[in-house]
């Protein structure tokens, strides 16, 4: 592989070497040219082997336990898994990854989270792409590999190398400026990583042929996990991930059918006869310890490791598994100024109850608003290949004017949104039912069509036209909802769609048609468009949220737009002290503005984390929010101090997040057309939470 050095060049440490930077800048420029994606199509098989081991386990784990862990350490690994994935790419159709075979020691049922992309898997050296000038370089050698001249360059972090940095060696092909080999060490307070990546030429491109990551984790006490009472048992585990590519080819022509469905697909028989199907892709046969790990899985069979891992994973996802029901932990308690403290118990049947049907529901009550609320629904899975569901739901609950709260939250973003309503007492009651069909199309587009009928009543001193504020209205609507998430990656499992990777950009489009049908009172059209864009940059992360809407026709105020703000009423800064919301105006009271047409955007620049006081991950964020809108037929709505944002509303803010663990504070100031006469009236100070 490596030939005699054709020429050796040495450079003194600390002496600037502009030539090295020029070489690496050329590598960065040529990244896309050298990448396989310049081909019209290609395919290959990816073999992954991952395991957890601790070679000092014998010396540390001396116990009278019947397992005799010291003997276990000689015979088995802690964990072993292997996987074969067929990877395909077409310039027109995108990517497809089909999991052909998979096995993990000790697991009686698949743990789908293990199908996520392995950690520390760079496709291209990050420091070349993002942080070139934070490293020192030396051109230390030039050698020939397979008749190709290579530059050999050493690199090392300029600052804090032994605390938080990396160092190593990179080989660059002198003709194409492609990365040939990349190896070294990465240091961190939590782990040390040793890595080696190798590329191989194919026609006029280079593909990543194999990569190895060995991660040494900080020492942990496993005595509690294994229920060992007499003394502490310390473990310094190694996580090893080895990946190898074989059968790389570009001669196959794909059809749309080959890429149908999600980016990741589980082969129907992926967990059957795995040993025979995986063996042909191994570079080296399994060692005896590795074979024993598959055969005996002593740790998993002796202790409830699988059960504990599944339990902790459910808790992390906001669920408490109780047999065939998963209790929702995300909505157990919250607060708003209408209900007071709201307590809610709800759950959903899981896959073990029924593979093709799910029942879900909740009951809730508030300390200020005593009537019991609740909902009951059923989802029928009719097209699992595209996550197709027919959904029936009956409900009786309350909502803030102009907002729809997801009472059975599925993610932390929906939980965070509840912070917007802490200061809000302007609510209405809704009772009714809905039928909908939801399905994913074209991999990254989720669509839903819905028919909704409900009875609505104001819980605030508001009246529509000549009706009293206690009058009940009937509403019949049909709707179409579309979400486009171009960078999301999904895997279809027997238990439903699983998100492997999900990051903004998101685009949303909703259309609602109100009809005077079945005794309904309103006929109107409502269009909503939104976008959320998140971009990493040299300073940190930039986020933009755009919301806009338009309503044609007449309906009650709570079916228009409003509740734009989450500020607290008060005569002084400290009287107005509260908690920051999510994509909401921090200097605006909940009932200040209403509109039937509006555009609002929320800009946030979050800078890189730094160490300050009690936290190593303090973040500084700059905020700018703006909105403009209007409303027709304002006279048909009777409510105290109704106003519209027909001038451009603006506010700016500065946040210091994670100042003490996950808690920080923000300062927000109203500027522009709605700026008040005194400094104090424009200034708001709030707590910020960044737990998730």
How would you portray this structure in words?
This protein has 692 residues and is mainly β. The protein is 11% helix and 49% strand. The chain has a 20-stranded mixed β-sheet that branches. The protein has a 13-stranded mixed β-sheet with strand order 4-5-6-7-8-9-12-1-2-3-13-25-26, with helices on both faces. A two-stranded antiparallel ribbon has the order 10-11. It is globular and about 90 Å long. The two termini are 48 Å apart. Mean pLDDT is 87; it is low at 1-16 and 57-70.
Features:
about 700 residues; mainly beta; 20-stranded mixed sheet; 11 helices; 39 strands; disordered N terminus
What Rg is obtained from the alpha carbons, in whole angstroms?
Answer: 29 Å
| Average of pLDDT | 87
Oligomer: single chain
Distance between the termini: 48 Å
Largest sheet at a glance?
A: 20 strands, mixed
Q: Count the DSSP helices.
A: 11
Task: Name the beta content range.
Answer: over 45%
Quantity of strands, as a count: 39
Poorly predicted residue ranges: 1-16, 57-70
Helix content estimate = 10-25%
**Overall SS class:** mainly beta
**Global outline:** globular
């Amino acid at each position: 592989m490596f030939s005699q050095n054709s020429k050796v060049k040495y450079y003194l440490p600390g002496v600037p070497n502009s030539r090295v930077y020029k070489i690496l800048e050329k590598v960065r420029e040529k990244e896309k040219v050298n990448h396989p994606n310049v081909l019209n199509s290609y395919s290959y098989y990816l073999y992954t082997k991952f395991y957890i081991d601790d070679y000092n386990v014998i010396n540390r784990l001396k116990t009278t336990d019947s397992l005799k862990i010291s003997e276990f350490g000689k015979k088995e690994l802690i964990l072993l898994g292997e996987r074969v994935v067929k990877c395909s790419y077409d310039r027109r159709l995108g990517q497809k990854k089909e999991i052909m075979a998979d096995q993990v020691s000790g697991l009686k049922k698949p743990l789908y989270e293990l199908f996520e992309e392995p950690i520390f898997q760079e496709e291209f050296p990050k420091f070349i792409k993002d942080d070139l000038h934070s490293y020192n370089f030396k051109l230390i050698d030039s050698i020939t590999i397979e008749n190709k001249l290579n530059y050999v360059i050493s690199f090392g972090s300029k600052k804090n190398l032994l605390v938080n940095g990396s160092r190593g060696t990179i080989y660059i092909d002198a003709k194409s400026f492609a990365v040939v080999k990349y190896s070294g060490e990465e240091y961190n307070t939590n782990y040390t990583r040793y890595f080696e990546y190798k590329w191989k030429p194919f026609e006029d491109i280079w593909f990543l042929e194999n990569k190895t990551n060995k991660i040494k984790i900080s020492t942990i006490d496993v005595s509690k996990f294994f229920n060992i009472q007499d003394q502490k048992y310390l473990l310094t585990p190694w996580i090893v991930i080895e990946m190898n590519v074989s059968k790389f080819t570009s001669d196959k022509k794909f059809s749309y059918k080959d890429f149908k469905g999600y980016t990741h697909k589980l082969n129907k028989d992926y967990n059957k006869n795995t040993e025979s199907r995986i063996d042909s892709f191994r570079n080296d046969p399994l060692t005896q310890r590795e074979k024993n790990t598959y055969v005996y899985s002593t740790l998993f069979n002796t202790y409830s490791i699988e059960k504990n891992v599944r339990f902790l994973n459910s808790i992390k996802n906001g669920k408490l598994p109780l047999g065939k029901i998963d209790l929702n932990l995300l909505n157990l308690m919250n607060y708003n100024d209408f209900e007071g403290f709201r307590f809610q118990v709800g759950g959903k049947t899981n896959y073990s109850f029924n593979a093709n049907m799910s029942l879900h529901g909740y009951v809730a009550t508030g300390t200020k608003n005593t009537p019991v609320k609740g909902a009951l629904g059923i989802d029928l899975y009719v097209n699992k290949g595209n996550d197709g569901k027919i959904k029936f739901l009956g409900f009786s609950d309350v909502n803030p004017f102009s907002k729809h709260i997801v009472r059975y939250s599925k993610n932390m973003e929906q939980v965070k949104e509840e912070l917007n309503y802490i200061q809000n007492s302007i609510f209405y009651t809704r009772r009714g039912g809905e039928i909908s069909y939801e399905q994913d199309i074209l991999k990254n587009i989720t669509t839903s069509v819905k028919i909704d009928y409900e009875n609505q009543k104001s819980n605030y001193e508001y009246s529509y036209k000549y009706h009293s504020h206690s009058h009940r209205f009937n509403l019949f609507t049909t709707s179409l909802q579309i979400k486009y998430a171009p960078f999301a990656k999904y895997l279809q499992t027997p238990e439903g769609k699983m998100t492997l990777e999900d990051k903004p950009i998101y685009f949303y489009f909703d259309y609602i048609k109100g009809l005077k049908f079945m005794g309904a009172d309103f006929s109107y059209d409502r269009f909503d468009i939104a976008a959320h864009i998140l971009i990493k940059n040299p300073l940190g992360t930039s986020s933009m949220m755009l919301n806009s809407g338009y309503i044609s026709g007449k309906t009650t105020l709570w079916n228009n737009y409003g509740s734009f703000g989450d500020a607290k009423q008060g005569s002084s800064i400290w009287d107005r002290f509260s908690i920051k919301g999510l994509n909401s105006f921090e200097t605006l009271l909940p009932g200040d503005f209403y509109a039937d047409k509006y555009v609002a955007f929320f800009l946030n620049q979050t800078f890189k984390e730094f160490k300050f006081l009690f936290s190593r991950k303090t973040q500084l964020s700059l905020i700018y929010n703006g909105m403009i809108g209007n409303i027709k037929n304002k006279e048909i709505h009777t409510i105290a101090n109704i106003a519209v944002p027909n001038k451009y509303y603006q506010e700016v803010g500065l946040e210091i997040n994670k100042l003490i663990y996950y808690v920080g504070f923000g300062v927000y100031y109203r500027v522009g057309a709605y700026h008040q006469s005194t400094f104090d009236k424009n200034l708001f100070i709030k707590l910020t939470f960044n737990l998730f």
